[in-house]
Design goal:
366 residues; alpha/beta; Rossmann fold; OB fold (Dihydrolipoamide Acetyltransferase, E2P); eight-stranded mixed β-sheet; binds S-adenosylmethionine; MeTrfase_TrmA_AS; TrmA_MeTrfase
Amino acid sequence: MTPDNLPTAQYDAQLAEKKDRLVSIMAAFSAPEPEVFRSPVSHYRMRAEFRIWHDGDDIYHIMFDQATKQRIRVDTFPAASTLINQAMPKLLEGIQPHKCLRHKLFQIDYLSTLSGEIVVSLLYHRQLDEEWQQHAQQLRDNLQAEGINLQLIGRASKQKICLDRDYADERLMVSGREMIYRQTENSFTQPNAAVNIHMLEWAQNVTTNSQGDLLELYCGNGNFSLALAGNFNRVLATEIAKPSVAAAQFNISANKIDNVQIIRMSAEEFTQAMQGVREFNRLKGIDLSEYQCETIFVDPPRSGLDEQTIKMVQAYPRILYISCNPETLSENLTILSQTHQITRLALFDQFPYTHHMECGVLLEKH
Ligand SMILES: C[S@@+](CC[C@H](N)C(=O)[O-])C[C@H]1O[C@@H](n2cnc3c(N)ncnc32)[C@H](O)[C@@H]1O
């Protein structure tokens, strides 16, 4: 179901239902009433992926209805940002006349920003050649001349052709300060920019007056690390994905922040390092015992925290946990609530018109 015809009243009803569901999940942990952060009702998704349908020489964006599996032609997509909606028809118009751009094109991925930059990836079931590259450059130049600040990438099996850059630089106003966040194609970034701002400001709010340093796991491109840096003496953050770590390093200097250190490590490896089980070259020059962390911040993938990481996290007086999956959050809280109590709870509506929920929990040691 696309949100085309869904009125605001339906949005409100769905959000109220999510809140009730969260309250009932959190009742077991004596959590306070959730603070609820709404999404815009349209144009909230900064990323979108569409399959491409070929009808003779004609091409169009399609999606599949999740219930019926039927193909739906998509000419405009109100859930996606205004920029994605501007780029969609212009891109197809530019591709359609050229067989070498059209042939075996099966998917288009859009990554847009509030800053006006957009990265578009064209995915093919064939290898891309010099001719493709020339046409793609022309297409990019034409779209740029029409005012779309676009980067174009071609992808095929074991092939990636990046004409210039494979990233866009987002600019978000967070608590009155403009933050720059490099976002790389095919790497994790929060999908709903307006709700992301709410999440960053909420995390800043709950960590105001914190003492000491912050330890962060699953930091992505430094989204929270940089926004929270002002509330701590130092921030030590870890992330597994190389492109995200590179983006985070860029973001540290772009935002002129000098108290954040990012290490490329999985949460599991970092837990082993903290427990002294293993030594890592990547930690050379970093004395973990020098950090005085009273707060740990985690924003794991849908699978939540593994058993060893939960134990490690549990050693900290304050745990700030952002979760995109209330089921794994609830499983993890069963253990964390043995030592900590929930003092703040938030529902962020990252995914309007779906059942997905994003939550924030502050836990403090009993
Ligand atoms: C939900 S995202 C959060 C990213 C970041 N906090 C943000 O707001 O953009 C989870 C991140 O965890 C990373 N990740 C996934 N598995 C991991 C693991 N085992 N150890 C460390 N990081 C992992 C992913 O690459 C992704 O960047």
